[in-house]
Amino acid sequence: MRREGMIARKEGDAQPPGKRNLVDYVAQQLRQDILDGASPAGKRLPSEGGLTERYKVSRTVIREAIASLRADGLVEVRHGVGVFVSAVQPFPLAELMATDPARISSIIEMLELRTAVETEAAGIAAIRRSPAQEEAILERCKDIDRALRAGAATSDADFAFHLAIADATNNPRFKEFLELSGRKMIPRSFLLDHRDEDADADYIMQIQVEHRQIAEAISDRDEDVARAAMRRHLMGSQQRYRSLVRGT
């Protein structure tokens, strides 16, 4: 018997935490296929039954996900024929958010955008987070500690920590924003190789202190402190990359 919430995932994808997020999850997977070119303009999407089988969800979930894509102008429904990727697509947000690692100014621009979005996300997460989401944030923070102790790169664990906070807002748009930006939201993944991360351990340790402050504020349900901690964290990153521009 099919169970809502047990959906097929691409390698590396995280399963959404509950039924409420299934429509958003399926729509995001289909949307990403379209924006990445895996489903080009004019291509017919799999049938409703095929999508139901692929994602192991109900037909209602598939219909609502398709309706979301249709509202965004990404697909058109041809009655009696099927659902097709639109020939004219809106400007992909992923391109708008692209970061050029060769230009530190581009990284600073992304950090400024993140500061505006994630400062608010931290405050909302402090109010809305569930016990399970609180645990996930604290566990992702511990993952960074484990990477530090192992002498491993921390960029992926850092990204997962910020995603956990976005998820705890219980507003899927925050998480979608971070997922669209991807690992480029952790700019040192562009500028530092593994050896450099080890050499710059003091800086990464300071970042982790800031992560703990954010996690603790969210755990304490203190939205003002959570916002201040996230803003301080991201403003500090901006300052670091501005120093690189100045050559100091």
- What is the succession of H and E elements? HHHEEHHHHHHHHH
Q: Poorly predicted ranges (pLDDT <50, ≥5 residues)?
A: 1-20, 190-199
Number of helical elements: 12
CATH architecture of the largest domain: Up-down Bundle
- CATH-defined topology of the largest domain: Four Helix Bundle (Hemerythrin (Met), subunit A)
Number of domains: 2
Mean pLDDT: 80
* Percent helix range: 55-70%
Spell out the key features of this protein.
Four Helix Bundle (Hemerythrin (Met), subunit A), disordered N terminus, mainly alpha, Arc Repressor Mutant, subunit A, DNA-binding FadR family transcriptional regulator, 248 residues
Word description of this protein:
- The protein is mainly alpha-helical.
- The protein has 2 domains: 19-85, Arc Repressor Mutant, subunit A (Orthogonal Bundle), CATH 1.10.10; 93-246, GntR ligand-binding domain-like (Four Helix Bundle (Hemerythrin (Met), subunit A)).
- Helix content is 65%, strand content 3%.
- It has 12 helices and 2 strands.
- The chain has helices spanning 22-36, 48-55, 59-71, 93-96, 104-128, 131-150, 155-167, 172-181, 188-191, 194-199, 201-219, 223-246; strands at residues 75-78, 82-85.
- Strands 1-2 form a two-stranded antiparallel sheet.
- A hairpin with a 3-residue loop joins β1 and β2 (82-85).
- α2 (48-55) crosses α3 and α5 runs antiparallel to α12.
- The chain is elongated, with a radius of gyration of 20 Å.
- It starts with 21 loop residues before the first helix and ends with a helix.
- Pfam families: FCD, GntR.
- Residues 20-88 form the HTH gntR-type domain.
- One of its GO terms (molecular function) is DNA-binding transcription factor activity.
